[in-house]
Amino acid sequence: MRQITMTALLSLVAAIALTSARSVADDPKNAEAKPGNKLVGTWKTVSAKYGGKEVKRPEGFTAIKHVTPTQFMWAWCDKDGKVMAALGGTYTVKGDEYVEMPEYGTEAVLRQLKGKPQEFKWKVEANRWYHTGKLSSGLTIEEVWERVEKK
Are residues 142 and 49 in contact, defined by beta-carbon separation less than 8 angstroms? Predict the structure, then answer.
């Protein structure tokens, strides 16, 4: 199976987000398109628990998430920058509820979650995003993301 580089994947995600952003942003139901959305930006995982168990990542592993006013995309990359898993699509925010609707990604993750709402609670404190909920598959998620600042 051919590995996709991080740059190629992010270019693909940007193209998809740009082509769909206008129609999604024009929909008044999309609260995330409003100015002041605290989630818009680039985030890196600080810690994660899946199924109640803390995950210890290998050295050099990166989990990164990009959020635009209308789209999300996350990727798990190894120390060489090769994408091991990725998922993206649209999302909605209502109060402390954050719901992702996966539309594209790597095969195994996409097959399991595509078209099914993934419901979470969220809060942002300073530069940290606390993200908890349960996937449609039943797996519980507790993630802490840190905003990636410009260098």
Answer: yes
pLDDT in tens, 42-87: 999 999 999 999 999 888 999 999 999 999 999 999 999 999 999 9
Q: Which two tokens stand for residue 13?
A: 């995600």
In this structure, what token pair is assigned to residue 92? 């909605």
b/e map 111-142, b = 16+ CB within 10 Å: eebeeeebebebebeeeebebebebeeeeeeb
Among 93, 47, 85, smallest CA distance to 67 is for 93
Higher pLDDT, 150 or 119: 119
Q: Which CATH architecture has domain 6-147?
A: Beta Barrel (2.40)
